[in-house]
Amino acid sequence: MTALALFSGGCDSLIAMKLLTLQGINVKAVHFNIGFGGNKDKSEYLRKAAAQVGAELVLVDIRKQFFDNVLFTPKYGYGKYFNPCIDCHANMFAQAFLRLEEFGASFVVSGEVLGQRPKSQRKEALDQVRKLVRDLGNDPRFSHLLDSSPMDSNSLDSSSPESKPRFLDELLLRPMSAKLLEPSFPERAGWVDRERLLDVSGRGRSRQLEMVKSWGWEHYENPGGGCLLTDLSVAQKLKDLSAHRKMVLEDIELVKVGRYMILPGGARLIIGRNEQENAKLSTPNPRMLQITLLDSIGPVSVVESNASEADKLLAAQCTLAYAKSHEQKQSLADSSPESTQANLGAPDIAPKAQRVKVGDEILHVTPIQKERAHEFLFFKA
User: Fold this and answer.
1) Which of 40, 80, 96, 282 is deepest in the core (most CB within 10 A)?
2) How would DSSP label each residue in 65-106?
3) Residue range 10-55, pLDDT digits in tens
């Protein structure tokens, strides 16, 4: 027997998988990438964490599907920020059910705990997700998983053996709170021993941490705050950019990294703050022009391709505000620490014009002061 488990990386999903592997069930730990899980690569951690509970990690990229079908049109709306949690959960279940046959699995597992999260895991929210998943069962792609025979009196007899469930949501098992919920089909069919599952509820996690300690796990994350859609900065930038124009998939990086600026002509400018952000902003975006410094060492930035000439010029100047010329860099390398500190504190008396490439156009511009550039920040420190 094989199960597909939704794996966020937190201890709840790890415990849920452990409860099944202890029963001899083969578990595939599926981690869906929706594009907002964070800015760091977690694949190595996820692999080690899954291995310690006896599960095999499977990474699945659903960024485009989530962007196109869920992010901007959630049936159950958003949480406090830009987080369509209920619809996101239902969508992940749907994506898992679609892959059951691919992985030779029979049911789907979630580490959700009843009452743990105010938006997505209260009883009402779990019922909403269940309804969404049940509605998905009307899709012909899931017909092979369900019993479509006519209902009769024998069908209503709980003692009658069932070969298949009638509804898709019955193939969803939540081991952490199973004893507080109606028995799922895997429990009724005897695939899973319900008595060896749990009755955890509420926001406290002392019980989970005790189990983690007893098993001696090295790799686990404390739950909470992992999705960037619950980050105020990301949420506000998403709201701004989606109101400003129709977003494309590549815009995801624009709201996750960099200094986000709104220029006087209305163009959006994003300037990288470190090498990692520079690399992300270097990825081609059909709605943005990349800004490249030809005479300076500094950040990568992007400005909207339909920006006015004045905004493009200002975007180049703002980017230069965070840069050092080749001469400045060499001078700092050759100077003593004392003179270097003095030079850093001394403003340029007459900054020289420098070449900055905006898209395919090379401009000759002088940098503006950082204080002036800061005026255009969407979030001001």
Assistant:
1) 96
2) HHIIIIIT--TT---SSS--HHHHHHHHHHHHHHTTTTTT--
3) 899 999 999 999 999 999 999 999 999 887 888 999 999 999 999 9
Residue 227 gets which letter from DSSP? Answer: -
Measured distance CA(328)–CA(344) in Å, rounded: 10
CB-CB contact of 115 with 203 (8 Å): yes
φ/ψ bin of 2: left (φ > 0), alpha (ψ from -120 to 50), beta (otherwise): beta
The SS3 assignment for 156 reads coil
**What residue type is 333 in one-letter code?**
A
- Residue 154 C-beta-side C-alpha neighbours within 13 Å: 5
Position 206 scores a pLDDT of: 86
Nearest alpha-carbon partner for 4 in 89, 86, 93, 87 = 93
Read off the tokens for 292. 């490249």
Other CB atoms within 10 Å distance of the CB of residue 105:
23
The CA distance from 74 to 88, in Å, is: 8
Contacts with 239 (C-beta within 8 Å, 6 or more apart), sequence order = 82
CA dist., res. 123 & res. 109, Å (int): 17
Per-residue pLDDT of 172-182, as tens digits, reads: 999 999 999 99
The torsion angles phi and psi of 56, rounded to 5 degrees, stand at: -105, 130
Whether residue 298 contacts residue 317, with contact meaning beta carbons closer than 8 Å, is answered with: no
pLDDT tens digits for range 211-232: 999 999 988 876 555 789 999 9
Q: Name the β-bridge partners of 261.
A: 269, 377
Write down the pLDDT at residue 379: 84
Measured in residues, the chain has a length of: 381
Dihedral over Cα of 318, 319, 325, 331: its sign: positive
| Residue 356 to residue 296: CA distance in whole angstroms | 9
CB 192 within 8 A of CB 24: no
Which residues are 114's β-sheet partners? Answer: 201
Residue 269 gets the label, from left (phi > 0), alpha (psi -120 to 50) or beta, of: beta
What is the per-residue pLDDT for 53? 95
Task: Tell me phi and psi for residue 362, to 5 degrees.
Answer: -100, 120
CB neighbourhood size of 134 (10 A): 16
Are residues 289 and 303 in contact, defined by beta-carbon separation less than 8 angstroms? yes
Paired sense of beta strands 26-33 and 2-6, if any: parallel
